[in-house]
Design a protein that fits this description.
Elements: H1 3-33, H2 35-53, H3 57-72, E1 77-82, E2 87-88, E3 103-104, H4 110-118, E4 122-123, E5 151-155, E6 164-168, H5 179-218
Antiparallel strand pairs: 1-2, 1-6, 2-3, 4-5, 5-6
Helix pairs in contact: 2-3, 2-5, 3-5
């Protein structure tokens, strides 16, 4: 064959094949060495689907926290949902006991609520914001040690009652939550916000229907 055929036809085809082989090799190596990350991502997809089917607020709370803790092997996790003037925790999840903080207050817990203002996850320093004047024999308000919260993730919504804050500790191994994992948690929180809004809308519709029914009986 003439030499110009190799330059114009065969060479580009060979380059495309080599490029595709390189991409396949990179994907395979990524899956081999980041198997845990890909497993966590698949678990998060399952959690997103479960959130779309959730029918109660406690169910959404549990899915948001437990799915993230289990998928990423985190040391602790809790969600505080807006309840008017404060953000309330209604469940005892990993790392959080019944004696620990049940409410987040705007001034006292500004470090945890800052993520709502920033609109993105915020890393929390290693120094906990437990009240310094607590008696020595009184349990701490927050998980301590390895379970101490290290990341606060906003659950943002235009509906106040569907707004929440999720607090997560580092990995059980002690490693911090990575930037990719933080983005994963942020997306999960966005799905949770949509689920909260859907459930609250259903609750309001039931209340309106009940009020209308009561008004009809009075007439």
């Amino acid at each position: 064959m003439p030499a110009w055929i190799w330059a114009l036809v065969v060479a580009p085809i060979v380059l495309l094949v080599l490029q595709r082989l390189h991409e396949i090799a990179v994907e395979l190596l990524d899956r081999i060495f980041n198997r845990q990350f890909h497993s966590a991502r698949e678990q998060m997809k399952v959690a997103n689907e479960a959130l779309a089917r959730a029918e109660t607020l406690p169910e959404i709370d549990c899915l948001l926290v437990e799915s993230a803790v289990r998928a990423l092997h985190l040391s602790s996790g809790a969600v505080f949902r807006n309840d008017g003037k404060v953000f309330c925790r209604t469940q005892d999840t990993r790392g959080w006991t019944a004696s620990m903080k049940k409410e987040l207050l705007p001034e006292q817990d500004a470090i945890a609520l800052r993520c709502l203002k920033d609109g993105e996850p915020v890393r929390i320093g290693h120094d906990p914001w437990n009240s310094p004047d607590l008696p020595p024999d009184q349990p701490l308000d927050l998980p301590s040690g390895l379970a101490a919260p290290s990341l606060t993730v906003p659950v943002r919504s235009g509906v106040p009652e569907a707004t929440a804050v999720a607090l997560f500790g580092p990995h059980q191994s002690g490693n911090d939550i990575t930037a990719d994992e933080s983005e994963m948690l942020e997306r999960l929180a966005a799905r949770a916000a949509m689920a909260y809004e859907r459930v609250f809308t259903a609750i309001l519709r039931k209340e309106v229907a009940m009020l209308r029914q009561q008004a009809a009986t009075l007439d």
